[in-house]
Amino acid sequence: MSSRAARPSPPCSTRPSRDARCLRSARRGRWSPAGCGPGSSRRRRTGLFPVLGLVSLVVGAVGIANVTLVTVMERVSEIGLRRSLGAARRHIAAQFLLESTLIGMTGGVIGAGAGLVSVVAISAAQRWTPVLDARLALAAPVAGALVGLLAGLYPALRAARVEPADALR
Length: 169
Description:
With 169 residues, this protein is mainly alpha-helical. The protein has helices spanning 18-27, 42-74, 76-84, 89-126, 134-151, 153-160, 164-167. The protein contains 7 helices and no strands. α2 (42-74) crosses α5 (134-151). It has a domain at 56-167. Helix content is 71%, strand content 0%.
């Protein structure tokens, strides 16, 4: 056997903990490269925000689908009357798709506006310079409209399948 065989590490290390090293580096006025300065948890947070955004989009889609489905159930007699007067299934489906898309777009506009106002307000309170990306503010209503369109597919198809004779009873 060679004398360079791997030795097991001792069970209790004499090396200071990561928090202690960070504290010592901060006292000296510099941050160590060990990943303990400002933004050290950046890698963990970058995955969290897209997941939170996706969860909020799914919740919004479920809400839009529920509202549109309740609207279809309440307006069965109106749908039957329109169908009996000659409206095609695609006209009924298009109406409910348009309604759900407008609901989603309205939510995107309100959300983008609230986000812009809160960024500017917090920046002003902290005396920071607000950094805003106009593409994101413009993309929010488009994303909301797309989510509304997808969420309204099932209710619109259900409304389009209503038979005029059954709806008018």
